[in-house]
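hiii so um. not sure if this is the right channel but i have a protein structure encoded as tokens and i wanna go backwards to a sequence. like what aa goes where. can anyone help
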């Protein structure tokens, strides 16, 4: 996976966009740490980070750095 850009970053939410050089599909890495959730997920998105299907492709409880969780999609 190739890092594209940071999509959102504040105290409770960190998001970044990645692209698969193999398929040119875009993915949104999303880490949430709030009173409602503490998890890391990856969703398919468009080049601007817009998600149409919120079914996660990878997820972990708590924090998982982007390198670690994007490895789950290495064949994408």
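sure thing!! here u go:
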């Amino acid at each position: 996976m190739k890092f594209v850009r940071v999509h959102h970053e504040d105290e409770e939410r960190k998001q970044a966009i990645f692209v698969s050089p193999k398929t040119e599909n875009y993915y949104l890495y999303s880490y949430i740490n709030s009173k409602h959730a503490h998890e890391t997920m990856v969703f398919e998105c468009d080049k601007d980070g817009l998600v149409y299907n919120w079914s996660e492709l990878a997820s972990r409880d708590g924090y998982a750095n982007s390198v670690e969780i994007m490895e789950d999609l290495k064949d994408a």
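oh and The chain has one domain: 2-73.
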